[in-house]
TrEMBL record, chain A:
Protein name: Exosome complex component RRP45
GN (gene name): RRP45_1
Family membership noted in the UniProt record: Belongs to the RNase PH family.
Organism: Friedmanniomyces endolithicus
One Gene Ontology molecular-function label: mRNA 3'-UTR AU-rich region binding
Keywords recorded for this protein, A-Z: Cytoplasm, Exosome, Nucleus, RNA-binding, rRNA processing
TrEMBL record, chain B:
GO molecular function: RNA binding
Keyword Cytoplasm: yes
A Pfam short name: RRP40_S1
Localization in the cell: Nucleus
Chain residue ranges for the region called Disordered: 13-33
Alphabetically ordered keywords of this record: Cytoplasm, Exosome, RNA-binding
Name of this chain's protein: Exosome non-catalytic core subunit rrp40
Exosome complex exonuclease Rrp40 N-terminal domain: residues covered: 26-65
InterPro entries according to UniProt: Exosome_RNA_bind1/RRP40/RRP4 (IPR026699), KH_dom_type_1 (IPR004088), KH_dom_type_1_sf (IPR036612), NA-bd_OB-fold (IPR012340), Rrp40_N_euk (IPR041054)
Amino acid sequence: MPHATRPSTNESAFVLSALRENLRLDSRAIDQYRPISLKFSSDPDVYGQTDVRMGKTRVICNVSCEVITPYSDRKFDGVFNINCELSPLIGAGVEIGRPDQAELLLSRLLEKSIRRSNALDTESLCIIAGQKCFHVRADLHVLDHDGSILDACCLALVAALQHFRRPDYEVHGEQVTVFDVREREPVKLTLQHQPFCVTTSYYDAGTIMVQDATLLEEQCREGEIVVSMNRHGEVCQIAKYGGVPVDALSVLSVVKQSWEKVKMMDSVVREALSKDERERDKGGRMKAELSAENERVMERPVG
Amino acid sequence: MAAAMVLLPGENIPTERLPKPKKGKLTLGPGLQHTPPSTISATTAGSLQVDHRKAALWLEDAGGRYQPSVGDLVIAQIHHSSVETYSCALTPHTSFAILGQLAFEGVSKKTRPQLKAADIVYARVSKASKWEDVEIECFNSATGKAEGMGQLKGGMVFDVRPAFARRLMMGTDKEGVSKGGVVLLEEVGGKVKFEVAVGRNGKVWVDSGSVRETVMIGQLLRGADEGGWDVEGQRKAVKKALRDV
């Protein structure tokens, strides 16, 4: 009985004619993203929980970790998993446990962008080779779907990974002591780079390229190109699964446009992270406590 | 007037709020239930509205769910057609409403409109009950006239909350003041020519000469719905939007 809603003929025709006149329904520019709101958990003991909103799209991400035995064929690496499931919260026609194509593509693109590109250095998660390592797990939940869920998921995930702190530990020979959060300050994860995904929807055989499409615009599009890259311009992956054929030069210009968007997303994440750090560190006491500098007494040089 | 009273399901209405009926009869509108002898309780969440002249009480529900009731004008989207009927969706993710293929003005089996999937029509709910499929029709079966109903061609459909759609459809009282507190469409209509159809199921169809004007009207509707603008706020927003177009 639950059926996915398709836009009416009037709506799809209108969206297309508006795009041909360079107009979008919410008066954005053709390549403009909706305002991105990134929030972390307000609990001072909780790290690695993010809540991202892009317009009406809302995604939350939770990063957690535990100590396990590493895989036997990867003794020196820890384990990092990304779990992203869509639920009927975002619309009927989506069932948990029965992933449709959109959900499979979402998981696959997140894997390619973040895991395969080694954004998180799994070697840094190793405690004792072959015996103990950290298993970092990221759970993504899409709460509202108004288009661009992949972009929002990737941003939430990268911000959560940068925010998360794993417990500190000490190794004495074969003995490992993992300290509780209250005993020792937890430690940030080692991220080698921060990749972001930019989805470009196209219409009219690639002549109109739109970034950050709303759900209605996504339902009327002819295809999409997903580019994952970091702020240095290093491309992690480019994906175009089906859709109307587009010529190669358009794909190249899409990659260039995406770079600008990635830089924008990266600055949003950095600003939110530094603001959160300032709030958690009220008065600057932690910085003073953690600093290893001695107080030096300045004396006049002799001679 | 006392401040608006918000009730939760199960709460009783205090007796001082009840209007004094002249003929001794009190009319209960949607959202209220009478338990004899003298308790009136709320069945949904909403704000209590009282009309002393008609001795009527009801709850205004600001929820997002539309429940079909007979006589409502709605914008329905055709999903598929069967032998003698079209199956239409009034709201997403609910069972389909049935529209007879001959339920249009002046049609016979040979001259009926050929509607395809994803077309939209302006229709009236003719039958709505909890245990049967909802039925809609595109003409007034009493008079046989279309009265503005039928297929909607072109234009654009905007989604609003059903409570906002109800306010849009309330019309004006004797002094010309809008009863629902929404003057948007009238203000815009002073400067821009457009056609509009409001569906009680939370859809507003707008067709203006140009794409830009339709987009502007859609944005004003969304702003008034989500931003909760009052009459003054709406006038200001319309003036600003008309300047930009």
